[in-house]
Amino acid sequence: MRQRKIRNLDEKLEALVNFQIQEPEALKGSWKKPCYLEIGCGKGQFITKLAELNRDWKLVAFEGHKSVALHAIEKVRAAGHENVSFVLKYINSLEDVFEDGEISGIFLNFSDPWPKARHEKRRLTCGNRLEEYGRVLSTNGFLEFKTDNDGLFEYTLTEIANRETFVMVEMTRDLHNDYDKEKIITTEYEDKFSQKGKKINYLKLVKKR
Q: Fewest Cβ atoms nearer than 10 Å: which of 8, 45, 166, 200?
């Protein structure tokens, strides 16, 4: 979806530089723990609520679209949370940023499905990505994945089954009917489409010992 251009975007982000990590690679091996990631944080509703409920967690939100990230940073600032930092660029490999076992949990919410076969390696749940997540996650570290794209969900289930990286501990193809809605932390996108009756797929994986 094309994002509306924000006037003076760079200046607005510069004013919020204290919420950003400019060179995350420099922190490899020295991240505050426990550390959790949201890869593709969108406009920040999920990460803001997660920070409120888990004030002892260090949260790192990755978002390559700067105009979208601005909304997320502003939400976190308005909420007064000090346990969230933002990385405003795409990271080719998490292993450039984190040591093995340095992360306690990863959240993937409504990632781009990249439906064309030639773009498979760009999917955040392709096999190589799953193996990478397994390496940077600590023992008993987890991965949570939500999507409204049924094709991507089925693809992800196959990729998980073809590898020995994770154990699946939770899975549903209808999150908002099968789980207590009061306990679900949602994204803006999720609210919009679940209210229209779209079923949300969800799974939780735990790293094998």
A: 8
